[in-house]
Design a protein that fits this description.
The protein has 20 helices and 11 strands. It has 399 residues and is α+β, with helices and mostly antiparallel strands. A 7-stranded mixed β-sheet has the order 3-4-5-2-1-8-9. The protein has a two-stranded antiparallel ribbon with strand order 6-7. Strands 10-11 form a two-stranded parallel sheet. Helix 7 runs antiparallel to helix 10, helix 12 packs across helix 14 and helix 13 packs antiparallel against helix 14. It binds adenosine-5'-triphosphate (ATP) and magnesium ion.
Length: 399
């Protein structure tokens, strides 16, 4: 197959390929960008693979950065653009089921493509648009399947993270995992425990935010991967509840976590622990916990504007989307309007300060000030007093 018209991202990078070839080496576009372009999807990063060794790349280009030179990656800067150029390589060792003990630079494209995870990710394109397809990745793109390059079992032994990558691509592309590959995942799912939680989480989040997340999540459960993830052991039935919901999308990572905690029926404390086990960032964890609280308040129908304000107005839209997912009744139109009308986002937005209170009431600094500030904050949020200096002063003096 030949791509008649290269996408603009590739075209822009052509001079880089040409420079490398002029110096007597081979260079190709590889990986996700090739796959996504053939599928008609937008491209994010353009990866280039070459027969030139990193040191050779550094003599060809003036401006380079050693991004991952021991793995063969050098970033080349051209104008305002930057390209990751990786030397063809093979890998061996994999004693920790994740990182190869040894990376060997090679001169053959085919050897490089062989070490890649799935056939659809093992395509290369030369500067004339010719697609190099050694493992029928094009056929698999057409069939919409995810198939390991070579023997699936061996490939997952080399790097167990690939099993998570399979279900995440499934979710992002709405593909099926090919039978042999799926069987190898099921047989080797236990190896996932060897992988750093952060890496698993990264793939898991991509899965949950993918356009066909239910397909990916279904296999994540069915192929036993969930059993070897933090906090998910023996939770398959609870997690499977998510599959019965309407096919809605999660608006962000926090929405996905909250939905999971809700399906597992976790207390706030258990939910917080689950997020810690997954090593979710503090910020995401706090947002998820606040969203979970708000969701449960909405479910009980037991909340007021102050609850929404104190849990963070920014969490409101996410919680409304989860209410839809879990069919929790909410007069969200009226409520949205009320929430939009909350005049402040935090106490810092109040038109009065502690010092002002001291002056207005002619009192001494002390705990009383904090109490008055909090009272004013409540009144402003509830809409009973305007957030304006004179009105707030009037209110203080009338109390
Ligand atoms: P994305 O669109 O998410 O960036 P991608 O296919 O580009 O998808 P990357 O993680 O950016 O995925 O990796 C780039 C390429 O490197 C892949 O297409 C694949 O060929 C190869 N690759 C990445 N991770 C692995 C792995 N764990 N095992 C084998 N090959 C891998
Ligand atoms: Mg990529």
């Amino acid at each position: 197959m030949q791509i008649k018209k290269l996408p603009s991202d590739f075209e822009q990078a052509l001079p880089v390929l040409e420079e490398i070839e002029k110096a007597g080496f081979e260079a190709y576009f590889v990986g996700g960008s090739v796959r996504d372009h053939i599928l008609g999807l937008p491209i994010h990063d353009v990866d280039i693979a070459t027969s030139a060794y990193p040191e050779e790349i550094k003599t060809i280009f003036k401006r380079t950065v050693d991004t991952g030179i021991q793995h063969g990656t050098v970033t080349v800067l051209v104008g305002d653009d930057s390209y990751e150029i990786t030397t063809f390589r093979t890998e061996s060792g994999y004693q920790d089921f994740r990182r190869p003990d040894q990376v060997t630079f090679v001169r053959s494209l085919e050897d490089d493509l062989k070490r890649r995870d799935f056939t659809i990710n093992a395509l290369a394109v030369d500067r004339n648009g010719n697609v190099i397809d050694k493992f029928d990745g094009l056929g698999d793109l057409k069939k919409q399947i995810i198939r390991a390059v070579g023997k699936a079992e061996e490939r997952f032994h080399e790097d167990a993270l690939r099993m998570m990558r399979a279900v995440r691509f499934q979710s992002q592309l709405d593909f099926t995992v090919e039978t042999e590959t799926a069987k190898a995942i099921k047989d080797n799912s236990y190896l996932l425990e060897k992988i750093a939680v952060e890496r698993v989480r990264e793939e898991f989040i991509k899965l949950m935010l993918g356009k066909a997340w239910q397909t990916g999540f279904n296999d994540f459960l069915k192929l036993n991967l969930s059993e070897y993830c933090p906090a998910f052991k023996n939770q398959r039935d609870n997690l499977a509840k998510l599959l019965k919901l309407d096919d809605l999308k999660f608006v962000d990572e926090e929405a996905a976590w909250t939905a999971i905690g809700y399906a597992m029926d976790l207390t706030p404390k258990q939910f917080n622990k689950m997020l810690r086990d997954w090593k979710v960032s503090n910020k995401s964890r706090e947002t998820s916990v606040a969203t979970d609280k708000m969701l449960k308040n909405f479910k009980k129908g037991n909340f007021d504007l102050w609850d929404i304000y104190s849990l963070g107005v920014d969490n409101f839209a996410r919680t409304v989307s989860l209410c839809k997912l879990f069919k929790i009744k909410l007069d969200d139109k009226n409520l949205s309007e009320e929430v939009l009308n909350i005049p402040i986002k935090s106490s810092r937005d109040l038109a009065i300060t502690g010092n002002d209170i001291i002056k207005i009431l002619k009192i001494k600094p002390g705990p009383e000030i904090g109490k008055l500030m909090s009272e004013i904050e409540h009144k402003v949020v509830e809409g009973t007093v305007y957030n304006n200096f004179d009105k707030l002063a009037q209110y203080l003096l009338s109390e």
